[in-house]
Specification:
Helix content: 25-40%
Largest sheet: 8 strands, parallel
Shape: globular
Distance between the termini: 30 Å
Bound molecules: N-(iminomethyl)-L-glutamic acid, fe (iii) ion
Number of strands: 12
Length: about 375
């Protein structure tokens, strides 16, 4: 403070005595454009059905797709806006949003156009990801190549022409997209300048993380199921390991091996995965708490992973993720706290007193 230059203009002085000022959370993995919640699956889950069983019985992603196909752009924009405002009030100041509940050309484009509108309407950086390869639509259940051809030859050119996406993503998993199918889609997207992200190793050790590194993916996300090969592969290159502990928490699957990744010098980011099926929450403070409590990260590591490394996973590290000269002033100020660790320690509660976006107080 003693080095602070006297401002030339009359600036508002905010007294943050006893408080902490954090850079906003950078939530690099969400699916917040969806038509309806899926509480009906909540009861099935409590009764013991697994995520895969619910999906195989026509629930899951296909259930969300059927509802989204019937919704119009305005409805989707309005409900996503409510979610995004809630996330901002909880400290999120940059976000990535995926398509993937359309599963037809028209509905995937509809989702991406909604994300484009969100980009224009909200005062935070937003990245868009094409996730048409999220599940095979029923009509293509026995004709995988038919759906992949549709994505490659019809959807990708249109998405590129309208500049609707920054990244391509594939749910690479048993019962969803195989390694070969994922490889094919990522390679085709490369021609259009869409860098890959992959839903990798969520339910099984599949080779998806290694495929991501081979494609120089920006990030491989989930990684609940990993072996030593995944750890050593991620120790080289710049592909970020994005971990989503609130997904593990909600669908009762293993927590990712964050400590192993960090010990192997991998780059670890934390994100929410906010979606109606596996993670109906965009609360990044809870994600950071789980990072500490379940992934055994230190508070400093978890906060770094949810800010600077999350920004890197959206390629906006130059403007977001830390408080520094030249970066955006997207911040939150806490209530008085005794230490930094108090933030993840007080799980499920918000310590945020004020949110600042682009240097201005944010009032939703
Ligand atoms: O990241 N695993 C794939 N996609 C989402 C869940 C999608 C859904 O269940 O609606 C995820 O967990
Ligand atoms: Fe996801």
């Amino acid at each position: 403070m003693s080095d602070l230059r006297t401002p030339e203009v009359n600036l508002e002085v905010v007294n943050a005595e006893g408080r902490f000022v954090f850079p906003s959370w950078c939530d690099s993995h969400t699916h917040i454009v969806f038509a309806a919640p899926r509480e009906e699956e909540f009861a099935l889950k409590i009764a013991g059905k697994t995520y895969e069983e619910i999906a195989a019985a026509g629930g899951g992603i296909l259930n969300s797709a059927a509802k989204l196909q019937k919704a119009n752009e305005d409805e989707l924009f309005d409900s996503a806006s409510i979610r995004l405002r809630d996330m901002i009030k909880q400290g999120t100041g940059a976000v990535e949003i995926k398509s993937g509940y359309g599963l037809t050309i028209e509905s995937e484009l509809k989702m991406l156009r909604v994300i484009k509108r969100l980009k224009a309407a909200f005062p935070i950086p937003i990245k868009a990801t094409l996730l048409a390869a999220h599940a095979y639509p029923t009509a293509f259940k026995d004709n995988h190549q038919g759906y992949i051809d549709l994505i490659i030859h019809k959807l990708l050119p249109q998405v590129a022409a309208e500049n609707l996406a920054d990244y391509i993503d594939v749910f690479c998993e048993k019962g969803f997209f195989s390694l070969k199918e994922t490889d094919q889609i990522l390679s085709a997207a490369q021609q259009y300048g869409l860098l890959p992200k992959i839903h990798a190793n969520q339910l099984s050790v599949s080779g998806a993380a290694e495929l991501g590194v081979a494609h120089q993916a920006v990030s491989v996300d989930h990684l609940e199921e990993t072996d030593d090969k995944v750890l050593t592969t991620l120790s080289t290159g710049n592909t970020i390991a994005t971990l989503l502990p609130s997904c593990s928490f909600y669908i009762n699957i293993p927590f990712a091996n964050a400590k192993g990744l960090i010990e192997n010098n991998a780059i670890v980011a934390l994100a929410s995965d906010y979606n109606p099926g596996s993670t109906p929450s965009g609360n990044m403070n809870f994600v950071v708490s789980l990072g500490c409590i379940k992934l055994k990260m230190t508070p400093q590591q978890a906060i770094n992973a949810a800010t600077l490394n999350g920004a890197a996973a959206m390629q906006i590290g130059h403007e977001m993720g830390s408080i520094a000269v030249g970066k955006k002033a997207n911040l939150f100020i806490t209530r008085p706290m005794t230490s930094l660790a108090y933030l993840p320690y007080s799980f499920g509660q918000s310590q945020i007193e004020n949110v600042i976006l682009n240097g201005d107080f944010y009032h939703a």
